[in-house]
Amino acid sequence: MSAMTGRRGAGPAGRSSETNALDALLRDTRSAVSPLRRTLEEIFEQASEVNEGRVADYIPELARADPAWFAVSVVTTEGECFDVGDSHRLFTLQSISKPFVYGMALQDHGREGVLERVGVEPTGEAFNSIVLDPASHRPFNPMVNAGAIATTDLLRGKDYPERMARLLGGLGRFAGRDLYVDNAVFLSERMTGHRNRAINHLMKAFGIVGDLFEESLELYFQQCSVLVNSHDLAVMAATLANEGTNPLTREPALEATYVKNVLAIMLSCGMYDYAGEWCWRVGLPAKSGVAGGLLAVVPGVLGIGVYSPLIDAKGNCPRGVKACKEFSTRFGLHCFAAASERRDMRREINGNTTRGAS
Ligand code: GLU
To answer: Most CB contacts within 10 A, which of 38, 163, 199, 307?
Structure first.
């Protein structure tokens, strides 16, 4: 379970035996010298011991996850990839889709256009609460369900298939590969999504969502049901760390000017009702989802992706929280860390190896 790979620019899917052999060689020749690789393995082992939380069971598909699954991935803005544990294991994005669709809405409507419909204030309410700002009737922010559904409603396209293609294509550009929806999860989300439907109708009554609001809710259920692995999450996070350009494909996924707005919302609202303490302790823009995924962004440096289906009462995976806390502390990555706490991440990533050796 603690097998670890490190490589540049290659996803974990469809790997040849040569790639595996190369990985084994790199593991042998570099693990002793790359501090980041070594630290990541240590953090993985340490976080593996956390056994708090339980697997989400509001739909049967999520309840089937094995609590032992655990993966941590890191992808740098230069395209180096480090994967530990079950990094091939697929799970659904759920709420982790929210910041990325928010980015797409910002591109479609600009900051002020989106702000008219969705606020940017943290809320102490549960992520699925049926609450709107009493004065403006807007949802408080795009990370709670109300705000995320209103955000998805802003996604342009002439019809449902075109909007769906934009949604999947947009998420896929962040991940650097084609992404697919888990249809069983989608159907379950849709069948059980009564609160989301109630929120959507309330927002329709206040004119926050438009005439296509029912179709938009379908799209929201689709985005929650997109399959990824921890490596994909790390690539998506690294794309945000890299000013919106995917560090592996070199393709733009989000206009650089909107990245700061997405990261600001992730920092203030990305970790459900743990967002305040997360910011205080870890200090990195992040987003988690109820399937057990978590991603965190170190702007200009790297993205972290974690998967552990055990989630706590707030909706975050304790193993992921532990791993990110350790990672941030050891390398001084808190966004407000003193200069004396910060480590030279380039050195940590490279160790003593020759750059480009992979
Ligand atoms: N599909 C879930 C919902 O809308 C997303 C939950 C989450 O990851 O926070 O309720």
So the answer is: 307
**Pairwise CA distance, residues 302 & 36, whole Å:** 11
Return the amino acid letter for 103. G
d(Cα 123, Cα 143) in Å, to the nearest integer? 10
How does pLDDT run across 3-35, given as a tens digit for each residue?
455 555 444 444 556 556 656 555 544 445 578
The pair phi, psi for residue 54, each rounded to 5°, is -145, 160
Q: Residue 333 C-alpha to ligand 1 middle, in angstroms?
A: 28
Please report the pLDDT score of residue 33 as a whole number.
52
pLDDT in tens, 173-226: 999 999 999 999 999 999 999 999 999 999 999 999 999 999 999 999 999 999
Angle, in degrees to the nearest 10, between helices 230-241 and 256-269: 120
Q: Report CA dihedral (102, 107, 112, 114) to the nearest 10 degrees.
A: -30
| pTM (2 d.p.) | 0.90
Q: Please give the Cα distance from 248 to 46 (Å, whole number).
A: 29
Amino acid letter for position 185: V
Mutate to test the pocket of ligand 1, among 145, 228, 271, 274 (most ligand atoms within 8 A of CB): 145
Q: Where are the alpha helices (DSSP H) in the chain?
A: 17-30, 35-48, 60-63, 97-115, 145-153, 160-175, 183-192, 194-205, 213-224, 230-241, 256-269, 275-281, 318-331, 345-350
Confidence grade of residue 335 (pLDDT, cut at 50, 70, 90): very high
Q: What separation in angstroms does the CA of 358 have from each of 7, 36, 140, 221? A: 6, 16, 46, 40
Distance 304 CA to ligand 1 centre (A): 21
